[in-house]
Amino acid sequence: MKFDAPAGSNVIDEAKVVGKPNTRIDGPLKVSGKAPYAYERHDVAANQAYGWVVGAGIAKGRIVSMDIDDALAAPGVLGIVTAPETEPVAKGVGNNVSAFGGSEISRYHQAIACVVAETLEQARAAAQLVRTRYESADGRYDLEASRENAPLSGDPQTSGDFDGAFAAAPVQVDSTYSTPGESHAMMEPHATIAAWEGGKLTVWTSNQMVNWSRQSLAKMLGMDIADIRLDSPYVGGGFGGKLFIGADAVLAVLAARKVGRPVKVALQRPLVTNNTTHRQGTIQRIRLGAQADGRITAIAHENWSYNVAGATGEEATAQTPQLYAGANRLVAEYCTVLDLPEGNAMRAPGEAPGHLALEVAMDELAEAVGIDPVELRILNEPDTMPGDPEKKFSDRNLVRCLREGAERFGWSARSTTPAARREGRWLIGMGVAAGYRGSPGMASAARVRLETGGRVVVETDMTDIGTGSYTIIAQTAAETMGVPIEAVTVRLGDSNFPASAGSGGQWGAACSTSGVYAACVELRRKIGEKLGFDADSADFVDGQIRAGNRRFDLADAGSLAAEGEVSFGEFRNGYDVGTYAGHFCEIAVDAYTGETRVRRMLSVCDAGRILNPITARSQVIGAMVMSVGMALMEELAVDKRFGLFVNHDLAGYEVPVHADIPQQDVVFLDTLDNVASPMKAKGVGELGICGPGAAIANAFYNATGIRVREYPITLDKYLTDLPTPA
Ligand code: MOS
């Protein structure tokens, strides 16, 4: 199915099953511990051996020698794969960073060996006996120090005359913000079991993008893609950290080949942070020039970030071409090469830290102009995409999000003067931020089978990374085939199934369900051919088919299968297909100790059709939790001497826990975007992390009168400035 024109009315509009608050169909399996995660698949291959990963002890340089004799002689050891003996293999599709191999060291905790033994304990003990000598080289690890010479990354986007308009503006804001590197910190570490049978390879792993990763493995190993099967039915969190094949998979594959047995490898928790990818830090300068009434005339967002050579930075300007009107514009990205671990996608890459700057700059502008921050945003609402006026918005309801949010949150109770509201020892503040995140269209395929008796089975390599894919896919098939959701079986994550869009960039829900819809339409057509009716004008309802004045039972069709794929046509490029939110927050700051407590959060989201309000809400509140982390806690601490993230475990890398999280409300406008997808749905998973952190920062300012522009907003940065009463 080529989606090459806006969706007209279709069977999904009936919304008998789609859009209903179905609880997760995989929920019982998960809460009872029966959903098998990659490392727990004890039954998929007999005689599994255990791998233990050895990580490099330097950040940059080379391995001079590696002595593995003692380790090889240790009890239970079956073999050792070492980097120097292995040709370097790049990660493959979409990523040329080395996954394993060679003597060069380019990041701390880079995998340099995998020790394989009969038991995990034996592998771990033997790994301590590997003796590696390095030759260290000097590296660059400091973004601030490298910022001045950072080259442009891509062309700046300009329109009008920013410098002239900014200089002439009666109201100006010129602020610089910094955000630190962040770690995905998912619960399930990267893990893989690999088994060879003849020349064929099976990999049971934890991965967001089955099709990409299978292609990567084929490229790495010089194999025919048909000889590789990758299976990832359950993923214990990814957040972008499992978009690509990692060292766990490469090592399991190489080790299994070496020892002639299936091998399982989980990256040990202390290795995850430096060995895998992270969200890079940024330094962002924002300049806003406005008329006295608050209308923006000049807007500039410049961002400095870093990565390994040949890769892009954390592109924090991503939302700025979309959000606010203003004729004179400058958006520029600079990226310097640092020798830190590879930076790559983490939930809403670019926009998530970008909002922490832009949406605080808007708060600063509102104060400078002297108008309400909600009104300032509404005043600067554009008609077409400001950074590309040729583009129309497919469907944009940001103003509604802000107005409805303000109303529901009780925004009018906010004090316009900072540090003016107190409850005993607590300073109370409220903040708002807008949110924007794109909603891309990615091709997605599925197979749907009608089984004898009327059961419907859906198969696609789509993943469920905790997002609810199983459930919304079942709802889509149930709606289209006219059966109850209980009559649908969903199988995901296996590369033997048709290739889906996968889970990334908040495109998963809208695109994968569109692919399932396309496959169901194909199946309906086949059923029509078999039973002799025109499927396009027939109704599939309650296990029955009504075609003109004829009636069939769905089960009359016997057993039939169909495949379908949605692909997205050119017409969509004429639009900016975005999702929007109004985020609100109330916090309390202890005037004596400086303790900051988030008290209430609300996000009003405009993301097209909501396929399931339970799973969608769960996505947004999870993202709001991550936003609390971004604003107040999370920071990869760089050791600038040795080039590593020091806090590389879940004790040192602080993320919010239950006790940190207050009442959270999510409201969906439940609009329909017929340009976005046949489902008229868009993404929500990343929208929820675009803005709430800025709302927290703005609430903090409103509570205390202190602007902390260096994230996270921690005690050391404001304690001495608190307006503590005498
Ligand atoms: Mo996402 S950060 O593309 O999983």
Explain this structure.
By secondary structure, this protein is α+β, with helices and mostly antiparallel strands. It has a domain at 2-35 and 442-572: Aldehyde oxidase/xanthine dehydrogenase, molybdopterin binding domain (Aldehyde Oxidoreductase, domain 4). Helices cover 24% and strands 28% of the residues. It contains 16 helices and 34 strands. A 7-stranded mixed β-sheet has the order 4-8-2-15-12-13-14. Strands 1-28-22-23-24 form a 5-stranded mixed β-sheet, with helices on one face. A 5-stranded mixed β-sheet has the order 10-18-17-16-11, sandwiched between helices. The chain is globular. The N and C termini lie far apart (70 Å). The structure holds dioxothiomolybdenum(VI) ion. Dioxothiomolybdenum(VI) ion is lined by residues 208, 238-240, 243, 345-347, 349, 504-505.
